[in-house]
């Protein structure tokens, strides 16, 4: 064990995990603080519009995830160091083109009046993040991942998140228009992208040295398409509840529902963090089918116990948490939150099962899984939301998670049969 810890690769990986954990915890804390601040300042109606604008952004953003890390990182690792500039330059050109097109189409939709005017004004600033996140931050982060050294990106992300929270507080104190807040997210993305580009240039003798190779550009455009479509379906599923609720309830009620879900999604993020942390040692590096199956079973049981225990605590403290974070105008969020926290159980189980799908790069299974989850959630929402409102949306999410977890279990049983 001591020899393994002294191994530089293991030490580097452990340090990376620590920084990843610190960054995620910082982002969760900042997200909760900002949400509470904006919820009190905006009020339920405007806060509902703010959350809906963020929902639209999170549905649009996966479009820019062409040539994901699962394609770019192995390409960087497997190519000679002298080709790094060509690899990164080709990926950057592709991502910038797709991101710019997505931003222009978003602005055209806003100008055409496809959304509520205030929602559109908020989204106009938020959407600019697409121009910086994947082309700049995503490409440099892939290079850092290839070296198992994500500290520069994670540290920059933590510092800018804290700075963003401070600027949100300043704008609230200045009684700024709600439409202005979205541009803070754009500024944050631009700063992170700029800092990482400067870091890359510094590490390479003051030169960027990026070039475009047409054959590599075409390869990046086609490779990973199935994974890309799967991620789009996954994020659409995760935000489908708010997209469909907007047609049936007021923005004020949507704001109260989103307040509860904002906290719940940060809690569910812990399950994803757990999965990311334990995946290398207990799943990705295990090749014996019997041992892998046993590990996955234990991890599922451990995750379920953790999520159930956490859900019980959050259920009991729901009133205290909601009132402290969002204030008295969101008392209706308490009941929604009490039910929503139990979604962490199927979400956590799904996250662990998904590790086997990712281990074997089962891209068509991933796509089929999220297509099924999306279809199931859509049908359930179509029936339940008109009858039960916000609680119907929770039922739709639960049904979708169960459908996704069922595909994982079927694949694990098929792939690891002994």
Tell me about this structure.
The chain has 418 residues and is mostly helical. It folds into two domains: 1-223, no CATH class; 227-418, no CATH class. Helix content is 83%, strand content 0%. It is built from 17 helices and no strands. α15 runs parallel beside α17 and α16 (363-388) packs antiparallel against α17.
Comma- or semicolon-separated keywords:
single chain; mainly alpha; 418 residues
Quick structural gist:
The chain has 418 residues and is mainly α.
Return the string of H and E elements.
HHHHHHHHHHHHHHHHH
Structural class, from secondary structure content?
mainly alpha
Radius of gyration: 22 Å
Largest sheet: none
N-C termini distance: 30 Å
Q: What value does the average pLDDT take?
A: 90
The shape is globular
Give start-end ranges of low-pLDDT stretches. Answer: none
How many strand elements? 0
Total helix count? 17
Number of domains: 2
Fold blueprint:
Layout: H1 2-6, H2 8-60, H3 69-78, H4 84-111, H5 117-126, H6 130-146, H7 151-173, H8 182-203, H9 214-222, H10 225-245, H11 251-284, H12 289-316, H13 318-326, H14 332-340, H15 344-359, H16 363-388, H17 390-415
């Amino acid at each position: 064990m001591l020899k393994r810890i002294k191994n530089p690769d293991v030490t580097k990986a452990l340090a990376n995990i620590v920084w990843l954990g610190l960054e995620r915890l910082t982002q969760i804390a900042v997200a909760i603080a900002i949400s509470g601040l904006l919820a009190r300042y905006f009020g339920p109606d405007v806060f509902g519009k703010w959350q809906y604008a963020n929902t639209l952004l999170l549905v649009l953003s996966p479009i820019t995830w062409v040539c994901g890390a699962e394609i770019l990182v192995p390409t960087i690792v497997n190519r000679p160091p002298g080709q790094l500039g060509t690899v990164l330059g080709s990926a950057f050109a592709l991502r910038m083109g797709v991101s710019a097109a997505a931003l222009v189409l978003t602005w055209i939709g806003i100008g055409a009046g496809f959304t509520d005017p205030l929602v559109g004004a908020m989204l106009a600033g938020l959407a600019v993040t697409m121009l910086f996140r994947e082309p700049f931050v995503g490409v440099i982060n892939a290079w850092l991942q290839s070296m198992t050294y994500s500290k520069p990106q994670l540290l920059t992300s933590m510092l800018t998140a804290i700075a963003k929270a401070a600027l949100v507080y300043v704008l609230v104190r200045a009684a700024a228009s709600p439409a202005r807040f979205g541009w803070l997210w754009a500024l944050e993305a631009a700063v992170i992208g700029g800092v990482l580009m400067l870091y890359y240039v510094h590490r390479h003798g003051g030169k960027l040295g990026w070039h475009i190779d047409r054959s590599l550009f075409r390869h990046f455009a086609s490779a990973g398409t199935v994974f890309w479509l799967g991620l789009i379906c996954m994020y659409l599923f995760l935000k489908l509840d708010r997209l469909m609720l907007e047609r049936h309830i007021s923005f004020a009620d949507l704001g109260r529902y989103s307040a509860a879900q904002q906290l719940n999604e940060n809690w569910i993020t812990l399950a994803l963090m757990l999965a990311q942390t334990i995946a290398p040692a207990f799943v990705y590096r295990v090749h014996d089918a019997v041992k892998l199956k046993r590990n996955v079973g234990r991890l599922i049981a451990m995750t379920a116990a953790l999520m159930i225990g956490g859900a019980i605590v959050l259920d009991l403290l729901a009133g205290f948490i909601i009132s402290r974070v969002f204030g008295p105008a969101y008392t209706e969020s308490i009941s929604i939150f009490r039910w929503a926290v139990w979604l962490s159980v199927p979400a956590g189980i799904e996250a662990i099962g998904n590790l086997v799908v990712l281990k074997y790069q089962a891209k068509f299974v991933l796509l089929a899984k999220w297509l099924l989850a999306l279809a199931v959630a859509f049908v359930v929402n179509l029936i339940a939301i008109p009858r039960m409102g916000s609680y119907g949306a929770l039922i739709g999410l639960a049904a979708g998670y169960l459908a996704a977890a069922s595909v994982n279990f079927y694949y694990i049983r098929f792939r690891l049969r002994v």
